[in-house]
Amino acid sequence: QVQLVESGGGLVQAGGSLRLSCAASVRTGSTYDMGWFRQAPGKGREIVAAISWNEATTRYTDSVKGRFTISRDNAKNTVYLQMNSLKLEDTAVYYCAADLGMPVSLWDREDKWYYWGQGTQVTVSS
Length: 126
Prior knowledge:
By secondary structure, this protein is mainly β.
């Protein structure tokens, strides 16, 4: 069983930055792909970014390209989401997700990720 614990959410003004962290209870050396999703009020959950277990591949949804960066530290079993130039529309609950060996083409499919964190709230104010 994999447990994911997000942290780093909070309230920030538009244009500001936040860094989210997701600590995974996995064995060092595990080959889990990791992703960040978000869910805004009244909307469905959408992929924000994802990274392969070996950091060779990353993907971003178009609305965050150039502003957000996903990274991971496998020695610490932690994945990060650096969010810069935050906009009001980035307000959402952000979830960390993990799965083993899923094709990159399926990363945007919420239903394909097996493990989920509890979410952390990010609120961007004007």
